[in-house]
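mind reviewing this stuff:

——
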Amino acid sequence: MSDLELLRGRVRQFTADRDWSRYHDPKSVLLALVGEVGELAELFQWLPAGTAAKLAASEPLHTRAAEEMSDVLLYLILLADVLGVDLAAAANAKLDDNARRYPPGVPQPQAGPAS
């Protein structure tokens, strides 16, 4: 069982224990996810780009960033579960597609792994 499957199971149990599934329609979960991404962005909003990584390695920003990234991950896992998406399979398929589209050694516009 993968780490994502274990987390999905824990999210399901957490939700079931609190009878929260009735609030977990795709739109509501997506909006919660966006809110958490906003909270993560807020931590970095005014940091100088050249020193953001160094600053994020120090406390308290390191811990706060980890907390917000965890919230983002958990809501993303919940959204995938609500929509019936195998998140690990979808991410692997996306990376495979990007590997074909952007072969190494060929100049490409700057982009991230999920372009």
Notes: Residues 38 and 83 are 22 Å apart (CA to CA). The mean pLDDT is 94. The chain is about 70% helix and 0% strand.
